[in-house]
Specification:
Elements lengths: L20 E7 L3 H5 L1 H12 L3 E7 L4 H8 L4 E7 L2 E7 L2 E6 H4 L1 H8 L6 E4 L20 H8 L7 H15 L5 E4 L6 H16 L1 H10 L5 E4 L7 H11 L7 E3 L4 E5 L15 E3 L3 H24 L5 H5 L2 H15 L10 H12 L8 H4 L3 H19 L4 H14 L16 H10 L3 H9 L2 H4 L7 H16 L2 H11 L1
Parallel strand pairs: 1-2, 1-6, 2-5, 3-9, 6-7, 10-11
Antiparallel strand pairs: 3-4, 8-10
Helix pairs in contact: 5-7, 7-8, 8-9, 11-13, 11-16, 11-17, 13-14, 13-22, 16-17, 17-21, 17-22, 19-21
């Protein structure tokens, strides 16, 4: 367990932690937050004596929260590149809660404290209970239906935020800003839409108050943070001289672009490496389409080909070339990012993917594909259809996802599908015997593909062709042949 004594080569909190104020609540104490927003805030406290501290909240798993409390709210972050490791202990957390063991009312009360100025979250796309193809609140979602009937005992993320804002309004407290740090285009707008839509179902006056007083800044976050493994925990143990169950490993690269739209103040994150801008959308789209889009391409097709990690995919010349070609030939033309050298950006992404110290599992990236496809691939495909341009590799990616969610790999072994629409996808697979009927069945899921793409003959034909090739030739040969056709 992490103690107060660290080896001399480890960066440790050199500020007075007793002067930190709990001014932010973060929902989703996962690996990414620990290696990104919390680390940036810790650097700000160290270099500029910032007093902004976090109350961390996990709504489901409680093990990390309990371990964090036992370590006096400290944990370690290892930035890893090949043989080089930089280790830092983060001390900017002041409190932590687990929604199930502490009770959801305790979480709402923590969000309702007068000092809280920001509520942020990293909870993955599915927690917003929205329809990925439209961005609208899914009123049929079981958690949303529960929260409409039981507004003071919410099950969903939108319900939790609405409940906390209701309590602040009732107590005459100022609003907080709600900052999503999840991978969605215009994530602030999506969050605002689902929160206000749910509030309207409960109390129209509250919905109006939220719309007039609460801000929802959008963000773009970028850092590769794989799930921890026994191997990376062993690396941390060797460097620390003790176990740290809350520790996390990541790549050295860091980027955080934030819309400067905060109603009750914010930390000076720009002093610790963040970028504060007026419009995040161009950066979000660049990252979602070039980085996340190529990541998903490698995840589905690489996993089918037997590659466990992204760095393994990079050792395959055809996969490496396809990833960069996807970025530059099919994603870059759809972007409007000012003053960014997209070719250099693509080269930097490939270099990051090659980092063999970061064991980023293709199966991990493949999770929750139904929530990711619209913003990573499908909006780009729509752009190409309007402009009459080529989308060969994007279509191959869609076929790769369909082949992956069919649930059996190229060796006949089962694939564990982790997706909020898993049951519906499995039903489609079970009810379709031919490749063409399976493609048609999956395309008919309007929550993913909308009503337009299933009617686009060119798109449907390309996906059908690639699905057939994947089942007969396998992923490696299909990627190789697609490069010639693209």
């Amino acid at each position: 367990m992490l103690s107060s004594e660290y080896p001399g080569n480890i960066i440790r909190p050199d500020y007075d932690r007793s002067k930190l104020r709990t001014r932010m609540v973060h929902i989703g104490f996962g690996a990414f937050h620990r290696a990104h927003q919390a680390l940036c805030t810790d650097k700000l406290a160290s270099a500029h004596q910032s007093d902004w501290g976090y109350c961390e909240v996990n709504l489901n798993s409680g093990e990390l929260i309990q371990a964090l409390k036992q370590q006096n709210y400290c944990y370690s972050v290892a930035e890893m590149a090949d043989e080089q490791i930089s280790l830092r202990v983060v001390g900017v957390i002041t409190a932590a809660l687990h929604g199930r063991s502490d009770g959801i009312d305790a979480v709402i009360d923590a969000m309702s404290q007068p000092d809280i100025a920001i509520v942020s979250m990293t909870v993955t796309e599915k927690a917003y209970c929205h329809e990925p193809s439209s961005g609208r609140l899914n009123l049929t979602h079981p958690a949303i239906a529960h929260d409409i009937a039981h507004p003071d005992a919410p099950d969903s993320l939108p319900g939790l935020i609405v409940a906390a804002l209701r309590r602040r309004r009732e107590r005459g407290l100022p609003p907080f800003s709600v900052m999503s740090c999840d991978n969605m285009p215009e994530n602030g707008h999506v969050t605002r839409n689902v929160v206000i839509a749910l509030a309207k179902q409960q109390d129209t006056d509250l919905a109006d108050w939220i719309g007039e007083n609460v801000t929802f800044p959008s963000t773009m976050v970028d850092r590769i943070v794989p799930a921890m493994t026994g191997e990376t925990h062993a690396v941390l143990r060797d460097k620390l001289g003790c176990d740290d169950p809350v520790g996390v490993a990541c790549e050295p690269f860091f980027q955080w672009v934030i819309e400067d739209n905060f109603v009750s103040g914010r930390p000076a994150w720009e002093k610790a490496g963040a970028e504060l801008v007026s419009d995040v959308l161009p950066y979000e789209e660049m990252k979602l389409r070039m980085l996340n889009g190529s990541h998903s391409f490698l995840a589905y097709l690489g996993n089918l080909a037997g590659y466990q990690h992204i760095s393994d995919c990079m050792a395959d010349t055809h996969f490496r070339t396809a990833a960069r070609q996807l970025m530059m030939a099919e994603q870059a033309p759809t972007l409007h990012t000012p003053d960014v050298d997209l070719a250099a950006y693509a080269d930097s992404l490939i270099a990051r993917y090659e980092n063999s110290a970061i064991k980023h599992r293709t199966a991990q990236i493949a999770n929750d594909g139904s929530q990711k496809l619209p913003q990573r691939w499908l909006d780009s495909i729509r752009w190409h259809l309007r402009n009459g341009s080529d989308f060969t590799l994007l279509a191959l990616g869609v076929a790769g996802w369909m082949r992956y969610v069919s649930g059996v790999d190229e060796h006949g072994e089962p694939i564990e599908i982790n997706d909020p629409m898993r049951d519906r996808l499995a039903q489609i697979v079970a009810e379709t015997s031919s490749n063409q009927s399976r493609v048609a069945g999956l395309l008919a899921v309007n929550a993913i593909f909308g009503e337009d793409l299933p009617t686009e003959g060119k798109f449907v034909a390309r996906v059908n062709d690639f699905y057939q090739q994947l089942t007969t030739l396998g992923a490696k040969e299909t990627v190789k042949q697609a490069l010639s056709a693209a």
